[in-house]
Amino acid sequence: MLKEKFHIEFVMGSATQASLWRMISQVDGLSEWFADEVTMNEEENVYTFFWGKSDNQAEILGSKPQQSIRFRWLDEEEENIYFEFQLHKLELSNEIALQITDFAEPDEKGDAITLWETQIDKMKRRLGV
């Protein structure tokens, strides 16, 4: 079954762009909310994410410092499937928003969105927002 692209956006309250960038791009930040532990092979630009006894690796496809970072799971068969974090400022409130782009099979999209919501709630608690 083909995976569908979806976007979800979270208003990040009083969090700063720098603190959010650390949370979405740095090993220590990602290990606070995204995975139990994160390591990085800097030569290959590959992150290894650990959850309990399982792990998965993702390569960085592209990054614009303080703005966006795109990852691709190494075990993903489709070349054009990725997940991406983008930061942008909301015009009316001047707050920072985090937009996540991901892909899921149609019957798993709701579960994927729920998982992201849970993880972002964890990030917000870590940031105190």
From TrEMBL:
Residues 3-128 form the START-like domain. It comes from bioreactor metagenome. Pfam families: START_2. Signal peptide: none annotated. This is START-like domain-containing protein. Gene3D superfamilies: 3.30.530.20. InterPro entries: START-like_dom_sf, START_2.
